[in-house]
Amino acid sequence: MIEKVINIIYRKMTMENKFYTRAACYWAKVPATIDGVLGGFGHISDIDIVGSRDFLNKIKELDKHPDSKLALDCGAGIGRVTKNLLIPQFEKVDLVEQDEKFINTAKQLIGEDNANLGTVYKIGLQNFKPQKRYDVIWCQWVLGHLNDYDLIGFLERCREALNENGIIIVKENITTYNELEYDDDDSSVTRSCNLMIRIFKEAQLDIVLTDIQANLPADLYPVYMFALIPMQKIL
Length: 235
What we know:
nine-stranded mixed β-sheet, N-terminal protein N-methyltransferase activity, Alpha N-terminal protein methyltransferase 1
């Protein structure tokens, strides 16, 4: 019986390791360009930033809105969101990204001497543990690379790393079907809205604001934005 349990755990760990290894190998081959990180849809970058900026502005209109001192960009890639969205609105922005060439490009794009550029962490989100407290933690087009268990754990760690009135923002593709959709090419999953809500609940997070990104091509997944705060906090 013990051997059977050990074998099940071993197989589960092996599958998880392959899931993350395949994703890392995929991104290692992707060029460090806007078109590369957006999967050939670099032309939607400006549209995306405008939608994100509008959403962030709505968050700042909340009665108990987050401060604008320190933000964290999770799965930052080449720093597209950091440079165009977060740095103009925060005193300092930290980045988390596991691909070294993306990090190097991000530093060049943002400028290593930019006073708004904070700490850059080279690590996958499944292993990342925030060392600071943040006003806003921004997670965009990256959480599909975490399995459900690791995603809940990551969100829990982010929840504990929020400043007073801090908010986690999730911006992700959402499938219109109830079933999980798996992409074997980049080793990622696309979740339904119901599944995302259940995961947020498991991580003890409440949704205080939602929106859908407008003006995207019709053949793309709908892109949802969620603003999350720790449960039992009332705005």
